[in-house]
Amino acid sequence: MTSETGNTMEPVGVIAVVGACRPERLRYARRLAAETNRMLIPAVRLVGSPDPAREAAVLSSWADPSVGAVVELPEQVSATELIGTFADEAERALLGGLVCVVDASHIVDDLHRDDYLTIRDIDSGLATPFVARAHLTVVQIEYASTIVLVNWTTLASRELATVMALLSSLSPGARLRLHRDDIALDEPVSRYSAEQERAGWVRLLNGAFDPHMTDRRVVALRYEQLRPLHPGRLRRLLDDRVEAGEFGRVVRSAGFCRFATRPGIVAQWDHVGRVISFTPVAVDDPVGEDEETLALGQDLAIIGLDLDEEGLTEALDEASLTDEEFAAGPAAWRSSPDPFPRWTTATDRSE
Question: Distance (Å, rounded) from C-alpha 123 to C-alpha 125?
C-alpha cells in the first residue's frame, strides 16, 4: 500500500479475537481495543461479507498504524483461513496475534458438539451448512497465540487445572490467561505465521510435544501402526466404543491414515469430539503386481481426558488388517466393507 506521494505506508498491526461464545468474545474485543486505543472492527461488520477474513484485512488497513486495530471475527471464520488471508495482505495489515476467548465452564462440552455452522461460499455466494462448530473451535484454540479463559471462577480449582492442561495440550505454544478485571490486556504485535507448528497434535507427531501445563487426567498419546485400517471395523470402533466413552473422553485426534479398501492413498484423520473426517492428501505411485507392497498405516496423535491408553491402542490395532488379511494383498483388501464416503481425488476430477 502506498500513499499519494508513492511512499510505502507502514502496515497496520492487527490483533484478531476469536471464540465460540459471542458475548464474551465481543466484550473482550471491546475492552482490548479501548484500553490499547486500537480501532475496533466488530464481527457484526464482517458477518454479511462473502469473505469476512479478507474484509477484516481491508478494513484494518484504514486504522492508524501507530496504534493498530482489534478485529472480532465471526465464529464461521476458520483460523487457518484468517492467518492465510492476512499473510496475503501483509503489506497493508499485519496479523500480530490471535486471541481465543474460551468459556472455561463449558469448553469441553463445546468440543463435543455435533452441530454445523452455515457459511457463505466465496465463489457462489450460497450459504452451505458444512462446517462443524467443534472443529472451528478446536482450530481456533490450536492456532491461538493467547487463550483467555472467561467464567473460570465457577469451576473448582481441580477442574480448572484440568481444563487449562487440556488447552495447553491442544495448543502448547499459546499463553494461557485467566481473565480478570484488573489485568493488562495489551498484546504484543509481531508477524504471525501459519507455518508455526502450534497445534498440539502436530507437535506430538513431530516429537516436540511440550505443554506448559499438565494434569493427571489429560492424556496425550501417539499411535503408530504399519498396517492399513479395515474401514468396516474402524466405523464400528468409532461409533460403538470411542464415542460411547469406553476408553475415556477422546477430545482431539489427528494425523494420517490409510484405508485398506483404498490402497495407495494417504488420508488426513481429523477428529474432534463427535465429528470426524478423512481427507485424501497424497497418492502413491502405482505398484505393479510383482512388486512388494510398501509399509502402510497410521500415525495419529490422540488427546483426551482419562484415556485408557492400552485399551484404545489395542482397539485400534484390531481395526487394522489381520495377518491373513494383510497377506492377501491389495486386490483382496478392496472387497472389504467400506461405509465411509467416497473420496474424489485429482485423478478422478481429471477423468
Answer: 6
Whole-model pTM? 0.89
- The CATH architecture to which 12-200 belongs is 3-Layer(aba) Sandwich (3.40)
Indicate if the pLDDT at residue 174 is higher than 60.
yes
φ, ψ for residue 266, nearest 5 deg: -95, 130
CA distance 49 to 284: 40
Per residue in 4-19, pLDDT (tens digit) is 333 357 889 999 999 9
Are 120 and 126 in contact, with CB atoms under 8 Å apart?
yes
Q: Cell digits for 285?
A: 505411485
Pick one of 3.90.660.10, 3.90.650.10, 3.40.50.2300, 3.30.1220.10 as the CATH number of 218-340: 3.30.1220.10
Domain boundaries, the chain: 12-200, 218-340
Going by C-alpha positions, the residue among 105, 101, 95, 45 that lies closest to residue 69 is: 95
Q: State whether residue 289 is helix, strand or coil.
A: coil
pLDDT digits (tens, 9 = 90+) for 109-162: 999 999 888 766 555 555 565 789 999 999 999 999 999 999 999 999 999 999
Asked whether the beta carbons of 134 and 272 are under 8 A apart, the reply is yes
